[in-house]
Amino acid sequence: MVSGIWGKKIGMTQLFSGDKVVPVTAIDVGNWVVTGIKTKERDGYNAIQVGCPRKRYLNQKAAISWMKKPKQYFSDIREIRVEVLPENLAIGQCADFNTQLEEGEQINVFGTSKGKGFQGVVKRWNFAGPPGSHGSTMGKSTGSIGFMRACGKVLKGKKMPGHMGAERLAVKNLDIVKIAQDAPVIFVKGAVPGHAGSLVFIQRQVK
After folding, report:
1. Residue 86 and residue 1: Cα distance in Å, rounded?
2. Residue 79 contacts by C-beta under 8 Å, 6 or more apart in sequence?
3. Cβ contact 190:28 at 8 Å
4. How far apart are CA 93 and CA 102, in angstroms?
5. CA dihedral of residues 8, 11, 16, 21 (deg, nearest 10)
6. C-alpha to C-alpha distance for 156 and 162, rounded to whole angstroms
7. N or C: which end of the chain has fewer CB within 10 A?
8. Are 3 and 80 in contact (CB under 8 A)?
């Protein structure tokens, strides 16, 4: 049994659960192919290497020749670490590990947050900013950053303007609201990091 699966975030929508509306994130977990197998004896750890074919090859059956030119045939290649390798696992077969997920199961989702470029302290650190009246001309500038006890020295870790977003984040204890029967898509309650089309890792919780 694998510890998790890779997928691509489609976007957010809402589903009805009884008489309540639940905000959910749709994640596409299909079209992954086993591209390699790592063993503890050879590589030092057990892992399954999976790849997502490019759009032009989605309707074609994966061939062993694809593994010789992975950049040509696969848009993304990732690994899934496992304690014990599944039986009858072969390179080129469909990585349908999403069948192990169940509705109502709790998972952790890892992803990369949206990049917001260079931002000031008001947006990056939620600073209040200057007063809105009495003729303030401060705008959204940082303000004084010195330290009176150390002759104006700026302390390490001071909240300053800088690059915001594009960080590896995890959202834990999310419920699987629904698993689509006609497509390899799962609906997870709440929001997950990343923009539409970004890769996310769905980790099963260890019981």
Report:
1. 7
2. 38, 47, 48, 49, 50
3. no
4. 22
5. 130
6. 14
7. C
8. yes
What are the extents of the domains in the chain? Answer: 4-116+168-204, 118-164
Q: Does domain 4-116+168-204 have CATH number 3.40.50.300?
A: no
Residue 50, CA distances (Å) to 29, 67, 78, 85, 89 in order: 12, 11, 5, 14, 12
CB neighbours of residue 31 within 10 Å: 19
Residue with tokens 């975030």, as numbered in its chain? 9
The amino acid present at 150, given as its one-letter code, is: A
Prediction pTM value = 0.85
